[in-house]
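User: Fold this, then the next.

Assistant: Folding the first:
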Amino acid sequence: MTKLMVVGVDGSADSLTALKMAGELAEESGTGLVVVHVRHESGVVAANGALAGAGVAINEALDEVEAMSRGRAVDVLAGCRVPWRFEVAFGDPASELIAAAGHHRAITIVVGGRTHGVVGGLVAGSVAQKLVRHSPVSVLVVRDGHPHGLHIAPSPVGR
């Protein structure tokens, strides 16, 4: 059985940076990836508050974000030599990423981290915060393109 990492993507630059980092880590460690996009209505509304006013159907917006996330994941992982698949879940992003990790017996969950102000963090919460608090597996939060505090030892293969 191949070990897997679950990577949450929402099409944002932060999530794509995390996906790129996960791809590099997967290549180094011989791990596969399950790239998970969670369709989350309030996330789309928060990203573009004008949707309701413009009369754009939420499902159409969710379809567009999903298609964009899928396309960008293909682009980011184009050069990686790791097995990976793209899955779509519906609901709360943190809960769905934890469920995907459990379903696939993943060794870790990788997500991009955004910097929230005090009020933003209290009101909106954070997928990364929820994951760190509730995930039964390790969580890697990639900020500014770097996994903070992570050190990868060289592979002992060929020694």
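Now the next one, as you asked:
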Amino acid sequence: MARRNGTPRVPKPAPRPERLAAFGLGISAKSRAAAGLIAHCRILARRCKCPLGEIDIVAARRHTLIFVEVKARASLDEVAESVTEQQKRRIAAAAEVWLADNPLPAFRDIRFDAILVAPGKLPRHIPVAFETT
């Protein structure tokens, strides 16, 4: 099939199997994390993407808005070490974009949590996993 300008469209290569498996694991982990949060919080959004980054879950509890990063690895020890400073900056930047697009005056506090997911283990929720500067 050709593009509008007449050049042929080059098909994208198929994703590598390990990338597909990692994507599936991430989606499953985010679903497990959201299910665990529902008992404590109201889920406002999931998988919010913007040019600056992605927020896995946006939740609310009373007057607190919570941006949640979900991490899945083979073990909980590996997961705990997997959120880098660069990722924290990206999550904070994405949160600023989300807040600009979704002004919610009822919230007085904002926090950044993490939920760690490993096969065969219950998800571990870490409130205030990091702070922004």
